[in-house]
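Exercise 7. Given the components listed, write out the predicted structure of the assembled complex. Treat all entries as one system.
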Amino acid sequence: MPKESHEQKAARTARIIDALEEEIPEARIALDSTNDLELLVSVMLSAQTMDSLVNKVTPALFAKYRTAQAYADASEEELQQAISRIGLFRNKAKNLKAAMTIIVRDHGGQIPRTREALNELPGVGWKTAGVVAYHAFGTPAFPVDTHVGRLSRRLGLTSQEDPAKVEEDLQKLLPPERWGRAHQLIIWHGRRTCHAQRPQCDACVIEKECPRVGVTLSDLKSPASATKRAGRSRPAPKRRSAPSRKASPKRKRPTKAR
Ligand code: SF4
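Answer.
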């Protein structure tokens, strides 16, 4: 792909997101919640845990703990028991109680609406804060998880590895009102097609927009590639149900506002 200006890269980014929207309009957050408190709890619990497992645990949890005060009043042992099926449950129970205690003490029991305030809560990093701020309050954010980082580099939209720097690069390429949706679409494309190993480039709707930075020939030796080499018709991209998500390890923003 020839060297492109910022304007050309921004236009390409817009075409990529448009194509993904057309391909996977059903893309949405896979964690079940009905309010901002439940969303925050779900996202906190999902670190290094499949969304499907979180969704199995949270109905009983949400029925028992309906307010931030209820979590703050519970003992860590009680919370551990309620989420014991989830990975890192001891640490997550500790963070849940500590975060809800701060929410009760400093925010009147209401979930803080800014990404910066959310980021100050125990167990809530910059990425998690962005996910909650965007989905709960519509705050523009382009949270960078493992999928968004990997795809952004393969697509040549950034060369950064640090999630905060990747997000800065991505934010320059789209208007703020598109950030959150673009984040969601890229995650789904990463789970369905642009896998960490063996990306399905032959079945990718944004193939013509992608320079495949860092993708090696051995990466492409996938069943889809074999089909194409054998001269068979190109397989249509599959529409699948919401894939379960394995959250990347929580990464804090390098410097926190204090
Ligand atoms: S062409 Fe390949 S590397 Fe590029 S986004 Fe599609 S699947 Fe990923």
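Discussion: The mean pLDDT is 88. The pocket of iron/sulfur cluster is lined by residues 151, 154-155, 193-194, 199-201, 204, 206-207, 210, 212, 215 (CB under 6 Å).
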